[in-house]
């Protein structure tokens, strides 16, 4: 399975999630429209029939009917508030509004339906402690306001509380089903993300294997050719033999570094084994190797490189390595001078003269991705790096890297960017 295929699956999952959100928004709109329709129906029923059940002035009828019908509008937005308005108005109507003779119910049937709907909404959506308060309060409301004649189950004193209890239990069951479904969907999303992550790791491992096969093969061939050239070619001078030996040494070093980098691609997200990383102490060996490779290089070091922290040392090594590579590539044959100084900070200056022969297409003054990578490495350890052409036609790289523990720790947390 390739990362591309898994990427398509991930995009499809994101599209499906967006579609699910759109469906949820549409469902909320439909529900809100339904509650508005119910409120209109309830007010249309409660207002004209209020005089049949209660003795109220005509001016007060729309308000009493509104208290009976309109709390349904809060069923989704704020169920506890809707219940409080409905229950409070029911208690007030039962106590203050006289009802018609022969009517044993202190408030309208519409009011009962809306109050039951709000109890159900609270049971489904509100916190459990609020559900308990609503259940007890509603049971007490019906037990104390309904006529307890004992002629029927609904008027026996415990029939209404029992019905409310059943309604609350049913709402809690619906709530449990919804919560379980949401937990299942979340678990499926996490599983899909984990699968995508594993697919990416598998693809990284495959790329690492392919890179190792290609690079290791060609670099090994370079090493073999460089080491066997003195035996295959007769009449080589001592300088030519030393040149081939330098090529072989550099190729072996490059191959070892590439293998170390590929180990990161092969890792499964856990901390890989810490392979030795170059540091400040390895910079002199790097300079000597470049000099043996034919770069007209001179260098000076003021102070001891042993005090340079590990992270700063790695950044320094990569910056010097990239600078030497740029000088060799863009200014072949030009003299290169390196100056290192360890004081309060670590300062680095690498400059090369005007190139002896500029290759077609080469621009020594052009800033490429290598310079951006060096600046990233310097910034990662709290330092700064500048690079640019000199008035005499040469090129210069200047860097200042801190040696303090605080900035070094910040750099260690930030990580190091790519050097080229």
From TrEMBL:
<dbReference type="GO" id="GO:0000155">
    <property type="term" value="F:phosphorelay sensor kinase activity"/>
</dbReference>
<dbReference type="InterPro" id="IPR003594">
    <property type="entry name" value="HATPase_dom"/>
</dbReference>
<keyword id="KW-0547">Nucleotide-binding</keyword>
<keyword id="KW-1133">Transmembrane helix</keyword>
<dbReference type="GO" id="GO:0016020">
    <property type="term" value="C:membrane"/>
</dbReference>
<dbReference type="InterPro" id="IPR050482">
    <property type="entry name" value="Sensor_HK_TwoCompSys"/>
</dbReference>
<feature type="transmembrane region" description="Helical">
    <location>
        <begin position="81"/>
        <end position="99"/>
    </location>
</feature>
<feature type="transmembrane region" description="Helical">
    <location>
        <begin position="30"/>
        <end position="50"/>
    </location>
</feature>
<keyword id="KW-0812">Transmembrane</keyword>
<keyword id="KW-0902">Two-component regulatory system</keyword>
<dbReference type="GO" id="GO:0046983">
    <property type="term" value="F:protein dimerization activity"/>
</dbReference>
<feature type="transmembrane region" description="Helical">
    <location>
        <begin position="159"/>
        <end position="178"/>
    </location>
</feature>
<keyword id="KW-0597">Phosphoprotein</keyword>
<dbReference type="Pfam" id="PF02518">
    <property type="entry name" value="HATPase_c"/>
</dbReference>
<keyword id="KW-0808">Transferase</keyword>
<keyword id="KW-0472">Membrane</keyword>
<dbReference type="InterPro" id="IPR011712">
    <property type="entry name" value="Sig_transdc_His_kin_sub3_dim/P"/>
</dbReference>
<dbReference type="InterPro" id="IPR036890">
    <property type="entry name" value="HATPase_C_sf"/>
</dbReference>
<feature type="transmembrane region" description="Helical">
    <location>
        <begin position="56"/>
        <end position="74"/>
    </location>
</feature>
<dbReference type="GO" id="GO:0005524">
    <property type="term" value="F:ATP binding"/>
</dbReference>
<feature type="domain" description="Signal transduction histidine kinase subgroup 3 dimerisation and phosphoacceptor">
    <location>
        <begin position="203"/>
        <end position="268"/>
    </location>
</feature>
<protein>
    <recommendedName>
        <fullName>histidine kinase</fullName>
        <ecNumber>2.7.13.3</ecNumber>
    </recommendedName>
</protein>
<feature type="transmembrane region" description="Helical">
    <location>
        <begin position="105"/>
        <end position="123"/>
    </location>
</feature>
<dbReference type="Pfam" id="PF07730">
    <property type="entry name" value="HisKA_3"/>
</dbReference>
<keyword id="KW-0418">Kinase</keyword>
<feature type="transmembrane region" description="Helical">
    <location>
        <begin position="130"/>
        <end position="147"/>
    </location>
</feature>
<keyword id="KW-0067">ATP-binding</keyword>
<feature type="domain" description="Histidine kinase/HSP90-like ATPase">
    <location>
        <begin position="314"/>
        <end position="404"/>
    </location>
</feature>
């Amino acid at each position: 399975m390739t990362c591309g295929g898994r990427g398509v699956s991930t995009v499809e999952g994101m599209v499906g999630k967006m579609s699910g959100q759109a469906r949820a928004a549409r469902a909320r709109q439909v529900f809100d429209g339904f509650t508005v329709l119910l409120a209109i129906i309830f007010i249309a029923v409660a207002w004209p029939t209020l005089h049949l059940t209660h003795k109220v002035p005509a001016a007060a009828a729309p308000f009493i009917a509104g208290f009976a019908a309109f709390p349904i509008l809060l069923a989704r937005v704020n169920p506890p508030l809707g219940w409080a308005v409905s229950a409070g108005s029911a208690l007030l109507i039962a106590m203050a509004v006289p009802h018609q003779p022969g009517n044993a119910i202190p408030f309208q049937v519409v009011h009962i339906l809306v109050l039951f709907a709000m109890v159900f909404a609270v049971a489904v959506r509100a916190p459990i402690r609020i559900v308990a308060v609503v259940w007890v309060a509603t049971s007490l409301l019906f037990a104390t306001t309904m006529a307890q004649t004992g002629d029927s189950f609904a008027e026996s004193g415990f029939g209404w509380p029992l019905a409310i209890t059943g309604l609350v239990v049913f709402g809690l069951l619906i709530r449990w089903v919804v919560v379980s479904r949401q937990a299942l969907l979340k678990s499926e999303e996490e599983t899909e993300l984990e699968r995508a992550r594993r697919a990416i790791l598998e693809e990284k491992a495959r790329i690492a294997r392919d890179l190792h096969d290609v690079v290791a093969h060609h670099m090994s061939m370079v090493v073999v050719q460089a080491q066997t050239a003195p035996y295959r070619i007769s009449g080589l001078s001592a300088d030519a033999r030393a040149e081939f030996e330098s090529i072989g040494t550099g190729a072996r070093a490059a191959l070892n570094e590439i293998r170390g980098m590929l180990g990161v691609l092969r890792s499964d997200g856990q901390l890989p084994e810490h392979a030795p990383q170059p540091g400040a102490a390895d910079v002199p060996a790097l300079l000597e190797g470049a000099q043996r490779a034919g770069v007209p290089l001179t260098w000076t070091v003021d102070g001891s490189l042993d005090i340079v922290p590990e992270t700063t040392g790695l950044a320094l090594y990569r910056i010097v390595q990239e600078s030497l590579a740029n000088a060799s590539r863009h200014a072949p044959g030009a003299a290169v001078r390196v100056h290192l100084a360890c004081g309060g900070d670590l300062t680095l200056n690498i400059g090369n003269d005007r190139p002896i022969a500029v290759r077609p297409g080469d621009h020594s003054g052009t800033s490429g991705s290598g310079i951006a990578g060096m600046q990233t490495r310097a910034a990662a350890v709290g330092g700064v790096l500048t690079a640019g052409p000199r008035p005499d036609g040469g090129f210069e790289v200047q860097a200042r890297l801190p040696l303090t523990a605080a900035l070094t720790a910040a750099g260690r947390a930030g990580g190091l960017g790519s050097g080229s």
